[in-house]
Amino acid sequence: MPDLNEPVSTNTSELRDGIFRPDLQRRFVHIVAWSATLSLCVGYLYSAMQVELDAIRRIAFVFGLIGFVLSSVVVRMTNSARLGAGVMVVAGVAITLVPAYFEGGVASPYSVWFLIVPLLGGLLLGPGIAYLSGAVGVISMLALAWFSESLPMPNAGGDNTAMLAMNQTLAIIFCTGIAAIISTMMSRSSKQLMSSRNAEIKKNQELIESNEHFRGSLNVARDAIVIIGVGDRIEFFNPAAEAIYGLSASEVIGLAMPEVLIPERLRADHYAGFGRYIKTGIANIMGVRLETFSLRSDGSEFPVELTIQELKGKPDSRFIAYIQDLTERNRLREELAQKEKEIGLKRRLEAIGRISGGVAHDFNNLLMAINGYTELLLLRDDLPDEAVESLREVAHAGDRANSITKQLLAFSRRDSLDVEAINLSRLIDSLVGMLEKVLPDSSEIRLELEDEPWPIQSEAARLEQAIMNLVLNASAAMPDGGRIWLRTFNARVDEEAAAGVKDLPPGEYGCVEVRDEGTGMTAEVIENIFDPFFTTKPLGSGTGLGLSTTHGIVRQSGGAIGIESQVGEGSTFRIYLPRAADVEEYYTEPESVEPSYSPKSATVLVVEDEASVRSLVVRTLSRRGYHVIEAVDGIRGYELGIRYLSSIDIVVSDVVMPRLGGAEMIRRLRLSAPELKVVYISGHSANELDASDIDGERSEFLYKPFNLDVLLTTVERLLLVSSD
Predict the structure, then answer these.
(1) Which of 72, 133, 573, 582 would bridge with 578, disulfide CB 3.0–4.6 Å?
(2) CA of 240: how far to CAs of 249, 302, 325, 394, in Å?
(3) Which segment of 285-294, 320-329, 506-515 scores lowest on mean pLDDT?
């Protein structure tokens, strides 16, 4: 059976019928159906024991039994009390009509059920069931009256007292049970009404508490919340608003909100917008997040995010404004944008550095061939003077091209530095004479040198180049001439000072400052100043590599460059170089020296994938008297090395080659010949390669393009080591 605590149905058609809830109506149908089924079975058994039942009565019993059970099933399947009750009324009238037919028709005591069913059905299940059962009862009574003369009369000789008594008893019990059910249901309905009333009272109390909680939430909210009433007067001002605006609630409640919180330049728009909303109901900002400006108590403006909602429920328009202070958020956004810009610049520089390093590597192979063959031709004494002069010009152009590749590699930080301890003041002092020769007469150099500068480690020639680039850049910024200050000093940089220079950690630095009184630079120019090929000079007047090269050299030395400049007020560049203890050791290319002896017969395996470089190395070694075996790549070099391993004295091999690199080829060969000597050559600098591949007592490294004398000296030195 359904639970009495089952939630009330929301079906409005069911709620219109009867005096009880639909769930109670369904329960009532179930109770009556199963009670009638039980009563029918008891009556049938009793009748069967008293008299022999004919076919009509058996059929009536079966029909009634099926009807009562079916009525309960219908209610469960359709969830409709009316449909189940209709089935039960039809079954009840049928089984009532049969005994009335045999027990006197209209005078039969069974006819009382024709009165009870419409009464109780209508009371409990609504007028539809009352009409149905009443109509069926009236038709049945009229039919019994019409056919009264032909109806079988009760057997005069029989004793129907017990049957009639039982019938009346069942009717009384049934009516008593129904009365009890109705009474119980009405009592429960009364309690439910009382409970509903109490729930309404509780709901009102909870609403009051909710309002208090709402007010409490407004008070603890992190954003400013302002309620605005009639006449734009402030009615509520939470503590967050007090903190943001610097005003107390007692100071502002009752005042006109626009006069207190809105900047004067925005008040006209505020009045126009709210006036339009009051008149037409059209609002462009209602419920929309809007970024605007508000006014603090000191008169300063600050950015806010504003959301306005109308408070319903009162005849006068009232509004609530949620205000978020965006000062900190905007500051963080600016910092993030700056960081992203710096990261983008760094990535762009790294990408350009990789490209320029790759270009320099490929170009070095070409320069190796150009400079090498030029050097070989210049060794000949059978050339006319005009050809020799032309070759010297080619050699000079090759040296200039080599200088450009070094600048590219310095920018990309792929070239190695031959580091040494450097006194910055002495370096600047020795550089002044050269600077005065290359600067125009209108430029004047002034020195401010530290007496005891901290030593730093870098390559002196590269550092001179970096400083000269800055001085030339300063001179170019003063087309009409002016003064250039060169200053050296020692600096202990703390975290606060380091934050003002990109990529500069706190520490101790030796510094070089180059300051001019030229045209200065905009922030946009400063942002791109170290980009390669970026220049503010007219087309054809500069390559844009000077400052990018300076930046690369300083970064290789572990330092950083700070810039201060304003348009029309000159520029200041400061180079920060860490003290010597903070600088890493770099690989130093062996110096070119004249060979001290002529080698005897020796066999050299040359492995180089670049044909022009391989041919140059082979010719150079062959002219020196070596027996040379050449291979086009590492795979072929390994095959030839294994075949002639017993006769090979030394290997000259490129490091980076397709299919098999030089380092891996040598590792494989040394499995069979551990004492094998090797001269590695590469357009990649040593610090780009794995040191474990090219270091060792029996290994040397030459960086392309190298001088042919350097190659011969290196090979002969290794052969001397091998002969010990």
Answers:
(1) 582
(2) 10, 15, 10, 78
(3) 285-294
Q: How far is it, in rounded angstroms, from Cα 317 to Cα 231? A: 9
H and E: helices and strands count for the chain: 23, 17
Find the mean pLDDT for residues 58-81: 81
Q: Which of 183, 162, 43 is nearest to 113 (CA)?
A: 43
Phi-psi sector, 104: left (phi>0), alpha (psi -120 to 50), beta: left
Mean pLDDT of the chain: 75
Using CA atoms, how far apart are residues 144 and 107, in angstroms rounded to an integer?
9
For 92-112, letters b (16+ CB in 10 Å) and e give bbbbbbbbbbbbbbbebbbbe
User: DSSP secondary structure string, 164-205?
Assistant: HHHHHHHHHHHHHHHHHHHHHHHHHHHHHHHHHHHHHHHHHH
3-state secondary structure of 659: coil
Contact call for residues 245 and 296 (beta carbons, < 8 A): yes
Task: Please write the tens of the pLDDT for every residue from 331-367.
Answer: 888 888 888 777 776 676 566 666 666 666 666 777 7
Phi, psi of 441 (to 5 degrees): -65, -25
Q: E strands within 129-286?
A: 224-228, 234-237
How many CB atoms within 10 Å of residue 302? 15
Report which residue type is found at 414: R
Give CA–CA dist 463/575, Å, rounded. Answer: 10
Instruction: Count the neighbouring beta carbons within 10 Å of the beta carbon of residue 667.
Output: 11
| CB-neighbour burial class of residue 514 (10 A; exposed 0-12, middle 13-18, buried 19+) | buried
What percent of the chain has pLDDT above 90? 9
**CA–CA distance, 348 with 353 (Å, rounded to integer):** 8
- For residue 399 the two structure tokens come to 């040296």
**Residues with Cβ within 8 Å of residue 149, at least 6 apart in sequence:** none
Full DSSP string of 48-99: HHHS---HHHHHHHHHHHHHHHHHHHHHHHH--HHHHHHHHHHHHHHHHHHH
CB 210 within 8 A of CB 228: no
For residue 403, what pLDDT is reported?
Answer: 59
Supply 82's token pair: 């009316």
pLDDT, mean of residues 668-697: 76
Where residue 190 falls among pLDDT bands split at 50, 70, 90?
low
Confidence of residue 607 (pLDDT cuts 50, 70, 90): very high
Q: In angstroms, rounded to a whole number, what is the distance separating the alpha carbons of residues 639 and 631? A: 9
Distance of CA 493 to the CA centre of its chain: 36
pLDDT at 627 (0 to 100): 92
* Complete edge-to-edge strand list for the sheet that includes strand 627-631: 627-631, 603-607, 650-654, 677-682, 699-703
Q: Which domains does the chain have, with CATH numbers?
A: 12-192 (no CATH), 221-325 (3.30.450.20), 336-409 (1.10.287), 417-582 (3.30.565.10), 603-723 (3.40.50.2300)
Q: Is the pLDDT of residue 594 over 50?
A: no
Residues in the chain: 724
- Alpha carbons 282 and 131: distance in angstroms, whole number: 56
Residue 289 has pLDDT above 70, yes or no: yes
Burial (0-12, 13-18, 19+ Cβ within 10 Å), 267: middle
Q: At residue 602, what is the residue type?
A: A
Write out the two tokens for 419: 């580091």
451's tokens? 């007496």
Cα 407 to chain centroid distance, Å, stands at 40
3-class DSSP assignment, residue 232: helix
Tokens of 107: 């005078």
pLDDT, tens only, 104-133: 665 565 666 666 666 666 655 666 666 776
Q: Report which of 414, 453, 454, 364 is spatially closest to residue 556, judged by C-alpha positions.
A: 414
C-alpha torsion sign, points 494, 500, 504, 510: negative
The amino acid sitting at 494 is D
The residue type at 661: G
